[in-house]
C-alpha cells in the first residue's frame, strides 16, 4: 500500500459526502497527490478500492487532469506560469533564470532531488505576474531578488 | 493568517462609494473571519431572505436587477434560475463556478481569499431561490489556499447555524461541499464542470439538455460564477432598484476587471459596467498607463478567449453591448494589455498553445484543429512559415468556429481571427522574413 | 408473442421536411434517425443506435432552417415544421472540413489495414473527402515500446489489437463498454489531442462482450486477432446464422473464405427484437470449436476394450441390431434416450419419433442439466417455464424484477437489454439472489436472501403485498396455504427485512408493466416445484402477468423447441394428441425422465441409452454415481462433436455435425423460430443428428420419414400446439422443506458457466480458452482474507460427495461465505462436488500449501 490510513479514511469520508461515490474520485486524487507528491497506476488501484469505483475511471480521470505529476518529482515542484499575462512580464526569462540557478533544464530535477522545474498554463495570478507555484504555494510579483530568497529558504528548510 | 494574493485592488475607492460593493472589505485582513463578516451585516441578508421571502420573490428580484452572469457569457442570472423545472421530483443543485482559469482572469480568487463568506451567503440565497439543498463550489485545484480559506469559512458558517439542518429554524436544510479541480481549464465550462464533479473526465456535454433541466447527476442544476453569486447577496441586501443605479440599461451593476500585462499598475478593479476601457488602462487609480510609457499595441478586453482590440478601439465602455459593438466581448472582464514590443505571432502562439493544451478532446474540430493551428503558428514564429499559411489559418479557424460542442473551440479561434485581421502585415512579414517585425523579449527583473 | 395488455400512451408525432421530403416521426426522434428512416443517408462516426448520442465526431452535420450554425443531426431532436438539408453546399463543406481534421492525423495505411474494405472512414473519404491533404506535419504516432513494428499495434485483450494511430476518437468502444455492457476494462486516457484509447493500465480488455468493441470501431484501430491478416473481407462469403450458445438466439453472420470449407469469423446481424446488435464473445468465438482438431472424425466402436474407428455402415448396423436385441430380450421399457436442447428442431423431432415410434418407449428427455425433478404434467414449474416472454418488452417495462439469476452468465442478452432500458427509459430494476451477482450492477437495489429460502422470500413478498394492500383478492386463502404465514417470520427466515419486502411488494403492485425473470437458482433447484408454487401464488395475488410477463427463462438454444416437440416422457396433452394423430399411436408406457432413467439404470432395469450431444457424466450432479450408473448399461450409443467423459463409456460413438454444417431451426426463449443456415459442409464424416437417426431407423427397416418434407410437416403440426400451461386455479401449498446444513461444510458452492464458456463444448474454441483456460475457485474477498489466499493460489474444495483442487480467483462481486466454480472444464469435474439430493451445495475449502 502506498496510501496511508489517514489518506484512505479521508478519501472515504469525502466520497461519502456526495450523492454519488464516483464524485469522490477527484478529491481522492488530490488527497493522494498531497500525500505522495505524484500519482501512478498503483495509486489508482488503491483509490478505486478505497472508494469502490472502477479502476479504469480513476485512471481516466487522473490522466485527464494535468495538476498531478505522474512521475516522482523533486521535493519542491516549481511550476512557472508561462501563459500570456505572465509571459508579457518575462515568464520565459524567469524560466531561464531558474534553469540557470538550479543548473537544470525545464522538465528536469536537480541532482539532490530537491527541485523539479516545469512551466504550466495560467494559474490565475495574472495581475501579480510573473509568478510560480511551488508545491501548493503561490509566489507572485516575482523579481530576481525574490526568487533567490525563496530558493534559499527552501534549501534551508529541506 | 491565511495566505492571500498581494494583488492590488481598489478597495479604498469602493469603501468610499455607496454603490460599489464587492470590494468594500477586501483589504480588511479579518474579513475572512465570520465574526468580522457578521459585524458588517454578513449573513443578515440570508437570514432575511430565508425567513421572510419566498423563492420566487428572490428570482423576481434578481431578474429585476438585470444581473448578468460574470463567468463570461453574460447570461441573465434570474432568467437562468427560472429555467429550473417547477415540478421535477428530482433534487436540484447549485454549483458555484470557481474554476477561474481563463488567462488574464484573477478576480474570483480575490473574493474567495478575502471575502469568502460573501460568496457563501450569495450561494445560500441562490440555492434557496431554486429549491436546492446541496450546493457545491468547484474551485480550481491549484488554488490550494483558496480552498483552505473557503473550507474554513464553511466550517464557521455551519458552526454558526447559517448552513446545515433547519437553518434559522425555517425548516430549510442546506449543505455545501467544496470540490477541488485537478488542473483543466475546460472544467470552467459548465457542462465539463458537471462531468468533473461527477468524477468523470472533464469533457463537455452536448446541449440540450441544458443543465437547468439535466445537470449534475442528471438533475436540474444551476451553474453560476463566484462573482455572480456574490453579487446576488448584495442585490438581495439592497434591492434591484439600487443595483440598477449602476452600469448601463442592458448591463446594470458593477463588475471586477482584472488588468494585467503591460500596464504600470496591474490589479483587480471593481467599476460600474460601461466604465471606459481607456480610463481603466490609463487612469492612475487603475492601470496607470503603459509600462515604460511605450505605445499601446492592443488589448484583449475579456480574457484570452476574446478578440483583440486595437488602440483606436479602446475608447469604449466596458459593458456587454459596447464590447460587442467593437467586435469583441466582455468575457470574464480580464483586460490584457500589450505594448508595441509584442510580436503578435508570439502572443498568439502562447494562446493557441494554451487552447490546444486545454481542449478536452471530445469533438473533432477543436481537438484536431487546435493542434494543427498550433503547429502552423509555431512554424511561423520559428521562422518556417510558408506562403499560404495565413489563409490556411483563416480557413481552419473558420472550420472550427461554431462547429464545436462547447465554446472552447470558438474561444481558441476568435483571438486568432482578430489578430490576423488587425495585424495581417505582421504575419506576412514573419512568413516572408522568417522573423518578427518586433523582436519580442520580455525580461524578468 | 406479446403479453402486455396495457395500452401504450399515444406517442406524439412530429412532421419535418428533410431535403424537400416530408417525414413524420415520433416526438423525441433525432433528425439523424428521421433521415435514416426516410432512406436519407447521413454519415456518422460516433453515433450508435443503441448508445446515447454524444455529438463528438461532427460528421453528421445538417443545415436546419432558422439555425445559424450547422447542427449535428445525431443529437438534434426533430421538431414539427423543421426544415432540414443534408446535402447543401454548406453541409458538404462542413463535412469535408471534419474529414480533413480526422484525416490530419490518420495514417494512410489502408493497404495494410485489416479494416480495409469495411472501413467507414475509408468509404466516407472516398465519397466526400478532399483530393489532397493540407496537413503538412508529421502525423501523431503512438509507438508501442519494445515492438519494432511499423504498425504500432498493441495487444489489449485476448483477442483485441489496438492501433492508436488509426483511432479517430469516436469513443464508441469506451462508451459501449461502460454504457451498454457495464464493463470497465477499456478507457480513454489523457486529454485533448493527446487522448488515447487503451486498456485499463496493466489490465486486459477481456469482458464477456469485448468482441463487440472491435465490431463497432469505425476504423481499423481495434481489430480482432482471431481474424485479422488472414483474409480480405472481399474474398469472403457470409451466411446468416444464430447463436446456439444461449437461449435468446442472437442473430449472427458467419464469414467463410470463398473456396475453403472454413469459417473465419462471426459478427452480429442486428435484430432489434432480440439482440440490438450486441453478441457475446461466446457467440462470436464459439464457432471455433467446429474447427477444433479434437473433432470426432469417424464413428468409433468398442472392440474388446478399445474404441476403434469404423465405417458408418458398420456402426449404424450395429446400433440398430443391438437396440433390436435389447428390445426383443428385455422390452422397449429398457431403452432410454437423452437429446441435447441445443439440437435443431429436425433432430429433436427425429429423436422423439425414433424413441417413440422405432423403439416404442417414452423414456426420453432433453433436460440434461442438474437436478431434474419428478415430472408432473400440471406442475407449477412447468407452468412457470412455459409462460410467454418477449425480450423487447423489457425495453418498455417500468419494473424489472430478476429473481435468482446471474444474467451475465445465464441470459447475457437480457442483461444488456435491461441496461439499455436503464439508459433510456429508467425503469426500477431489482435483482434478488442468494448471493451477489455481477448482473445486479444494473439494479437499483440488490437483495440477498438466505441460501435455500427462495420460497420463503416469495411468501414474504406475498405477505408484504397483503399488508400493503389488504384488499388483495383471496389473501386469507393464501395465508392458510403457506408457512410461515406472517411477514416478520418470513422476513427473518429469508433475511430480507419486512420493510424491504414491503417496498418490493409496492413496486410490484404499482408497476404499470412488469418483466419478472426467474433464473437458474430456481430452475436448477432441487425444490423448484415449491418455489414455482410460491411464484404462482405471487402472480395470483398481485397479478403480475396481467401487467407484463413472468417466466422461468429457458436456458438453451432450443429448450423451448424440445418442450414444444414433446421431448419429455409425458408431454403436454395437445402435443401428445398431435403426435398420436401423426403417427397413428403413442407408446402406452409412462416413461422415465432423466432422473428416473438414471435410477432405472442403477437398478439394472434400463439397459440401453441413446445420447445425442449430451455429456451427463460430466454435467450431471453426483459424478461418481452417474459414472457408475452408466457402467451398468449393456449398450450405450453417443453422438457428439468431441470425445467426452460420456463417449468414453460408449459402445458406439458417432461424429455429430455442428450447427454450422447444416441448415437447422431453433426456438428461442420467446418461442421464436429462427434458422441457422448451412455455412460450411460437414467436416470429416460428421452428420447431423436427424441424419444419424434416419440411418439407424433405416437399418432397422423402420424408416423415420418418407422425405424431409414429411419431417417438416410433422414438426409444423406439433409446433402449432400451444404448450403454455395455465396458471393454477387456486393458491398452492408452499411449505418450505428444512435446509440441511452441516457445520463442517460452511460455504455455499455455486456451479455455473464462466462468462466466456457454455457447457462442456466451448473449451474446444481456441479464442475462448484465451479468455479462460481452466477452472478456478472464485471466492469473496472475505474468504480470501480468511484463508490467506490470493489470485492463483491453489485451494482444495471439499463437499460430502467429493473434492477437487483449483486455483483461486478473488471475486469483485461475491461477498461472504460463497464460492463459484465453472462447470465448463472436463478435467475439473465440477459435478463431483454436488449431489442430486442436496438443495444447497455446501463445501469447505483449504489452502493447499507449497
Ligand atoms: C472554455 C470555457 C471556460 C470557462 N471557464 C469559466 C470559469 O473559469 N469560471 C466561470 O465562472 N465561468 C467559466 N465559463 C463559463 C461557464 O460555462 C458558465 O457560463 C458560467 O459559469 C455561468 O455562470 P454565470 O452565468 O454566473 O456567468 C467558461 C466557459 C467556457 C466555454
Ligand atoms: S470544443 Fe474543445 S473543449 Fe469543447 S467539447 Fe469540443 S474538444 Fe472539448
Ligand atoms: S455522428 Fe453526430 S457527431 Fe458523431
TrEMBL record, chain A:
Binds 1 [2Fe-2S] cluster. It holds the Pfam family 2Fe-2S_thioredx. The keyword Metal-binding applies. One of its GO terms (molecular function) is NADH dehydrogenase activity. InterPro entries: NuoE-like (IPR002023), NuoE_dom (IPR042128), NuoE_N (IPR041921), Thioredoxin-like_sf (IPR036249). Keywords: 2Fe-2S, Iron, Iron-sulfur, Metal-binding. [2Fe-2S] cluster binds at residues 81, 86, 122, 126. Its cofactor is [2Fe-2S] cluster. Belongs to the complex I 24 kDa subunit family. PANTHER family: NADH DEHYDROGENASE [UBIQUINONE] FLAVOPROTEIN 2, MITOCHONDRIAL (PTHR10371:SF3), NADH DEHYDROGENASE UBIQUINONE FLAVOPROTEIN 2, MITOCHONDRIAL (PTHR10371). This is NADH-quinone oxidoreductase subunit NuoE. It comes from candidate division GN15 bacterium.
From TrEMBL, chain B:
It is an enzyme of class 7 (translocase). Pfam families: Complex1_51K (PF01512), NADH_4Fe-4S (PF10589), SLBB (PF10531). Keywords: 4Fe-4S, Flavoprotein, FMN, Iron, Iron-sulfur, Metal-binding, NAD, Oxidoreductase, Quinone, Translocase. Its cofactor is FMN; [4Fe-4S] cluster. It comes from the Bacteria. NDH-1 shuttles electrons from NADH, via FMN and iron-sulfur (Fe-S) centers, to quinones in the respiratory chain. Belongs to the complex I 51 kDa subunit family. This is NADH-quinone oxidoreductase subunit F. It comes from candidate division GN15 bacterium. The lineage of its organism: Bacteria, candidate division GN15.
UniProtKB/TrEMBL annotation, chain C:
It comes from the Bacteria. Residues 12-90 form the 2Fe-2S ferredoxin-type domain. GO terms for cellular component: membrane. Residues 90-129 form the 4Fe-4S His(Cys)3-ligated-type domain. Residues 236-294 form the 4Fe-4S Mo/W bis-MGD-type domain. CDD domains: fer2, Molybdopterin-Binding. Its cofactor is [2Fe-2S] cluster; [4Fe-4S] cluster. The keyword DNA repair does not apply. Belongs to the complex I 75 kDa subunit family. This is NADH dehydrogenase (Quinone) subunit G.
